[in-house]
Amino acid sequence: MDYTFYGILEGIFYSITVWLYLYDQEFREARLMYIGAGFFAFIMILYLAKLVGEDNSKKNAKEIVCAGHLAVLSGIIVSVTVCSFLCFIYKPEAFHVSLSSSHQSAASLFDVFVPAMLMNLLAGSFISFLIAYAMKWNYSAKEKSISL
Q1: C-beta atoms surrounding 58 within 10 Å
Q2: End-to-end CA distance of the chain
Q3: pLDDT tens, residue by residue, 15-61
Q4: Cβ contacts of 65-70, under 8 Å, gap ≥ 24
Q5: Integer angstrom CA distances of residue 124 from 19, 36, 61, 104, 142
Q6: Who's near 104: CB < 8 A, 6+ residues apart?
Q7: Residue 148 neighbours by CB distance under 10 Å
Q8: 98 contacts 146 by C-beta, under 8 angstroms
Q9: Where are the domains positioned within the chain?
Q10: DSSP string over 121-143
Q11: pTM for this structure?
């Protein structure tokens, strides 16, 4: 259940940067969401390094990748839920689609939810594969003889 704790931590750290982005009335600080994706990835690295670095760890690469993806999915669920809540508070006009509203539309939610889902999924998946195969040095690889 460590993956749930780290997933919640990832989602909260990502959501803090989204809150800072939405707090600005002119929405000029879009780079904060990408910095939040970096926080998400950093916490993912910490979790997987802790998982791989345990002395009595007998986990193979599949288990590490699965644990990483479970942490990513729980982090995405938390971040999307918190981002939805923040958007209802700071961008309520974006949920009402009308032709008279020129400065806010449903398309402005694209700036919030695409990084929350897609970027965090891609970064977390990449990191879980990278850590699983790069930091676990004691894999037992069976040598197969090649016959020609």
Answers
A1: 7
A2: 48
A3: 898 888 888 777 677 788 788 888 989 999 998 888 887 755 667 77
A4: 65/128, 65/129, 65/132, 67/2, 67/3, 67/128, 68/3, 68/44, 68/124, 68/125, 68/127, 68/128, 68/129, 68/131, 68/132, 69/124, 69/125, 69/128, 70/3, 70/4, 70/7
A5: 21, 13, 15, 31, 29
A6: 91, 93, 94
A7: 2
A8: no
A9: 2-95+104-134
A10: HHHHHHHHHHHHHHS-----PPP
A11: 0.79
Q: For residue 14, which of 80, 92, 110, 87 has the smallest C-alpha distance?
A: 80
Residue 16: which H helix or E strand, with range? Answer: helix 2-23
The per-residue b/e assignment along 81-106, b for 16 or more CB within 10 angstroms, e otherwise, is ebbeebbeebbeebeeeeeeeeebee
Q: Tokens standing for 35? A: 């910095």
